[in-house]
Amino acid sequence: MQVFEGKTPAERNKLILMIALCLVALLLVAWSFGFFSGSGTTKRNTNNSNRTRRTQTASNNSTSTANLRDDTLVPPQPIIYTPPGTTDVPGTGRNIFAYYTAPIRPPQTANGTAAPNVPTAEQTPPAPPPPLILAGVSPSNVYARTGEFTLQVSGDKFTPAVRVYFGGGELPTRFVSPQQLSATVPANLISSQGNHEIVVRTGDRQLFSNTMTFNVTPPPAPPFTYVGLIGGPSYNDTAVLKNRSNELLNVQRGDVVGSRFRVTSISERAIEFADTELNIRHTLPAVENRPGNPDNRFNPPPRSAVSDDDEQ
């Protein structure tokens, strides 16, 4: 053959192998399409029959559709889905996701009319902070009946028009700086114990501060009981005192007892002391004479005044 002319034996073998492979491939393709068993014809016939059936079904559907009424105007209906395996049980008509909330009724008075709408604490807006700041006072407390004193007030944003008010009354105030004021508290305002409010403000109340409490405490009192009087010549009397340990003490005018109380006056009815630290006077009345009182001997009847002639 001319194809093999001029070829070497190796090249002839390769060419023969290639031709054989091509023939095998063609045979496999022909077999897959059924050319050897006649399946290709059957398949073509089947396809044709399927086309015929689809055409007949379409014609039947078109005929039946023409006989049906036009449902384009029917409103859409909800789709009811029933899960498989469930039983058709009539429902109670209650929505488990709906929570009942009682209506809010306005408060009413005793006669049934609506009460006025009074805002609660939650509805009331907080009060604005005061424009002035009261940080502290010195002294912060005093003893009652100690007399007039100077009150130093510290804070911020003070002006010369600001005054110090003690217990609601205005005090003579001196402007020192925007952070300090000085005021004089008279003795009559601290004549008794108690708490007093201190505030800094202007006369027109346009500027005001927060409020602080000033405490007036009772002063220390002599821890004694006045038992009685022992008279002496020239009114050199001796007073008998009883302390808290029920011990008796004999004192005279000028004596200091309890490390701070000086005896200033002795009479049959009372004894007076002066506090050497606070300059406060205290008066202790004599105990009442009672029958059977073991201290009755210290309460003799009033002695008459002794003249100079009797003493001579």
Describe the protein.
This protein has 312 residues and is an alpha+beta fold. Among the domains are: 8-54; 133-217, Sandwich (Immunoglobulin-like); 225-302, SH3 type barrels (Roll), CATH 2.30.30. 18% of the residues lie in helices and 26% in strands. The chain is built from three helices and 16 strands. The protein has helices spanning 9-32, 39-67, 308-311; strands at residues 133-138, 141-143, 149-156, 163-166, 169-170, 173-177, 180-185, 194-201, 212-217, 225-230, 238-242, 248-251, 256-257, 261-266, 270-275, 281-285. A five-stranded mixed beta sheet has the order 2-9-8-4-5, with no helix packed on it. Strands 1-3-7-6 form a four-stranded antiparallel beta sheet, with no helix packed on it. It has a four-stranded antiparallel beta sheet with strand order 13-14-15-16, with no helix packed on it. β6 and β7 (180-185) form a beta hairpin. The longest helix has 29 residues, at 39-67. The protein is elongated, with a radius of gyration of 61 Å. The model is unreliable at 39-43 and 290-312 (pLDDT under 50).
Spatial strand sequence of the major β-sheet: 2-9-8-4-5
Number of helices: 3
Q: Cα distance, first to last residue?
A: 194 Å
Q: What's the order of the H and E elements?
A: HHEEEEEEEEEEEEEEEEH
Can you tell me the CATH superfamily of the domain at 133-217? Immunoglobulins
